[in-house]
Amino acid sequence: MPFEFYVTVAVQGVLTGLVYGLMALGLSVIFGVVRVVNFAHGEFAVVAMYLAFLGFAMFGLDPILAMLPIGLGFFGLGYLLQRHLINPFVGRPEHEQFILLVGLAIVLVNGLLMLFGPDTRHANLPYGFDSYEVANVLIDKVRVYAAAAALVVAACLFAFFRWSRTGMAIRACADNLLGAAIVGLDVKHLYALTFGLGMACVGAAGALMVVLADATPMLAPAFTLLAFTIVIVGGMGSMAGALVGGILIGVSEAFASFLVAPSAKSMFSFAILIAILALRPQGLLGRKQ
Fold it and tell me: Is the pLDDT of residue 282 over 80?
């Protein structure tokens, strides 16, 4: 088989992996600061997919552009969820957080089933079947646009945490919660902001995912599991690790689908997960505790 085919598969996997990484980035940010594992992460991603689909079907709004209002809406939703629902559970045992968020996930999935049914929904974009050809390598336009949008969102988030005063305050809370509270930082507000930012990432990623996959409520558990896999591979709490893990999982899935069968994607992803846990338990870019 020509070498260009393998290059094409690798490039497509990297582009898809960047969108995966953005979705996992939201989970990593929330866990890294708030120390709460969002077990409804994939469910929120699928909600964003349906919102992007509705925007396209009803108003002709490109899902890649729709990620902006959806991300902003998810930021507000995440802020309110953390402030009024999740914050009382922050100091409680992990199993209580688990029950709360799994219950929320079940409510979301069943709500989607009631509203839309189990059928898949797809945004048929005008350029959905167009490709770029670079040195005999074909690259889907939708994947290029989605990956570029994911990179922009991730870069903005990195810049926010690195250079803004609020971002530095959030990092201070993550590093030393007691010290941050002693110097007068509003920890509850900063936690809510962080959860909102994580939700904005998953909202933007969900809007981008609808151009790559059909929306169906049954995707939600798979997306949650995918986000966990990526975060563990990249390193829990590591933002850069989420992107690196997303790319690695995206490439592995692309080659599994190409060389074996589409149904073998999960097998390859979990093989990587097992290898990382065995050789580097803290993840590729994670830090030892």
Answer: yes
